[in-house]
Amino acid sequence: DIKRVIAYSTCSQLGYMFFAAGIGAYNASIFHLMTHGFFKALLFLAAGSVIHAMHHEQDMRKMGGLSVKIPFTTAMMWIGSLAIIGFPYFSGYYSKESILENAYFASNYMADFAYIVGILTALLTAFYSWRLLFLTFHGESRSKPEIFDHANESPLVMRAPLVLLAFGSIFAGVFFSEYYIG
């Protein structure tokens, strides 16, 4: 379920916020909460656009090849996924790196453990984000031909908020980092 994957990723992102607060990096925790709001909302709305295009199908195993049918939604999902995995210069990069940096330099005896767990969860986040992208948008279509043939982009009223959230998913980290990091 495409929405379930995104919902489960919320748990790992909340884990980052809690572990930042646990090591005393409250500013990094709030910073990640803010950037997370942009890319998580983008991912959920883009998933809604995919579900709309696929006539209410939510199973990623029944998708594939959608990048040719819904390129705008594909781009939005890529932006949200790159932000959530902490790809350099997207908003998640600044907030996740701030949390990991605080853990690395903390003098707490559990901080080293938290740092290692943070790195491992970042790798897991990257894994399921890439899996979502490739199962949904790339490769051969695994959906019924009549559903795939009629798949099309969402109307402008659904796409306009995606653009605003994509802007925040890309630039919120760089614009607000000086207020939260340091």
Task: Please provide a written account of the structure.
- With 182 residues, the protein is an all-alpha fold.
- The chain is 74% helix and 0% strand.
- The chain has helices at 2-22, 26-53, 71-84, 91-105, 111-137, 145-149, 156-180.
- The model has no long low-confidence stretch (mean pLDDT 93).
Short description:
The protein has 182 residues and is an all-alpha fold. The chain has 7 helices and no strands.
Strand content: under 5%
Q: How would you characterize the largest beta sheet?
A: none
Q: How many β strands by DSSP? A: 0
SSE-based structural type: mainly alpha
N-to-C terminal Cα separation, in Å?
A: 39 Å
- Radius of gyration from the alpha-carbon trace, in angstroms: 17 Å
Summarize the helix and strand pattern as letters: HHHHHHH
Principal-axis shape: elongated
Contiguous uncertain segments of 5+ residues: none
- Quote the average pLDDT: 93
Number of helices: 7
How much helicity do the residues have? Answer: over 70%
